[in-house]
Amino acid sequence: MYSEWYSYHFPELVKLVTDNYTYARVAQYIGNRKLLTEERLDGLEKILLDSEKTRAIYDASRSSMGNSVSRVFSKIRLFYLPCMQSFFFVRCDSGGSLVSK
Question: Domain containing 65 — which CATH number?
Answer without folding.
Answer: 1.10.287.4070
